[in-house]
Description:
The complex is a heterodimer.
Chain A: H1 2-10, H2 15-18, H3 21-37, H4 43-59, H5 64-71, H6 74-87, H7 91-112, H8 117-126, H9 131-160, H10 167-197, H11 214-229
Helix pairs in contact in A: 3-7, 3-8, 3-11, 4-7, 6-7, 8-9, 9-10
Chain B: H1 10-34, H2 39-53, E1 58-59, E2 65-66, H3 71-78, H4 80-97, H5 106-127, H6 134-159, H7 166-197, H8 203-209, H9 217-241, H10 244-253, H11 265-274, H12 276-310
Antiparallel strand pairs in B: 1-2
Helix pairs in contact in B: 1-4, 1-5, 1-9, 1-12, 2-4, 3-4, 3-5, 3-6, 4-5, 5-6, 6-7, 9-12, 10-11
Amino acid sequence: MRQTTFAQWSNQVSPVHRLDARLKLFLLIAFVVSVALLRSLSAVQLAACLAALLAIAFLARLPIGRLLLASLFVFPFVGLFSLIVYLSGDLPRAFLILIKSYLSALAVLVTISSTPLPQLLSAARFFRVPALLVEVTQLIYRYFFVLSAEAQTMRTAFLARGGRPGRRALQAASGIIAVLFSRSYEKAAVLHHAMCARGFSGKFRAVEFAPVTLKEAAILAAGLALTAALHFF
Amino acid sequence: MHIPDNFLSTPVWVALDAVALPAVALVSREAQKLTGHNRLPMLGVMGAFVFAAQMINFPVGIGTSGHLVGGTLLACLLGPYPAALVLTAILLVQALIFQDGGLLALGANVINMALAGVLAGYLPARWLFHTKWKFYGVFLGGACSVLLSGILALAELLLSGIHMPAALIQISLGLFTINALIEGAITVSVLRAIERLNPGLTLTHHQNTARTTILDWRKVIPLVAFASITLAAVGVLFASTLPDGLEHLAGKLGRPFGRPVFHSQLADYQIHALGKGWFSRAVAGLIGLLLIYAICTLGGHLLSRVRRSYT
């Protein structure tokens, strides 16, 4: 599953992976905002953005070919909206938006495959995102794979018993979800007990961030300067 | 229906993000208050459950299939605030890990689906829950929630200056309606199945044991206020960005790769494109928004203090 690939990539060791997650989150948002504010995109700007993102990916020792391939999966989501813009009779704008959205999505992809999600969420917590939201997001991310594997197993079992589309399938799908709900409910209770048994006091301990070093401050300044410079190419 | 980045114009996404941030903070605080001591594992695993359930296809006739969105289902199972919080978290995971929905458009997506969607789904379900039309209420809730999310997304795109032909809007509305009916049917079907397996687990249970799902109108008012402020702010900004000059200029500058490479564009387009009044109006709008938020917060504090001194 491609999402677990990102999780694996994000646990590698590289200079980019070692960087402070707060810094990466801040630069990601700065880059995405900068791209969003571009009213047009020259070939130089596009090349600069791609080169910067791929350079970061290279420094992070990510497999660039597979990263680019994975980022193509963005197109179905973005393409649908571009199609709407195209159908409204604005071909250049549809094209522009498509490319800009691709760049934003690629930036997000590079960030999440060079930063473990718990760290990224702790950085979000540092920027005052509500604690409960951050914690729930973390648990959703953790349990999504478990529960979707379970759902997949149930679906396979349904098909193996000769299930096929039709009125029955609607009931069966509802049944699958209901069973999934019961199992999730049990899992939540078990999880709660396990957490209590390990001394959980009602709050996750946040990742402690080391103080920002001079090098990191320099990287932040350089990154911000580059994202701003995008508008002057 | 997850809007990606760059499809909303800057005033629209900025305004929606500015409204979504305090609204999510409010929802988070309320969810923290209302749910029990095991809220964290429960909310997290329930979020993962809805997320996984979204992957299951429902055959809905003539070769097509739909899937659950789950806002109304979550609101019936957990209550409106926890449901909104969990859906916000799901949207966050989708934007970060699955690249489904943009980072800057997160505010818009949260308002469409997690806030407005859950509220629209919860209210009909709640009103009819203790009558014999309970499942009609749930059906209506599911349908309203998806329909409202879709219409809001469409409205935001239109406000962003994407001129859709009337036929396209009609087709989209038709598709939203079909999706809404499918969501209603799936929600009812799933809720029935869940109740059969775990009798007494949904809304009724919560209401009898604790005040978990009772929607307090005092607390809804800030939400409604936020929604109306967004609409007002976006409307003002939209009106101020519409003049033909900007459209013309955006069209002229909007050609990808077509612009001379080295050209001191910041000097000319920033000022022209933003217009003389645009920037100041946008800033004024945002300041107004913040002021209103500050007044609301202060008023809320004072009110709660007055109430506390009475009791």
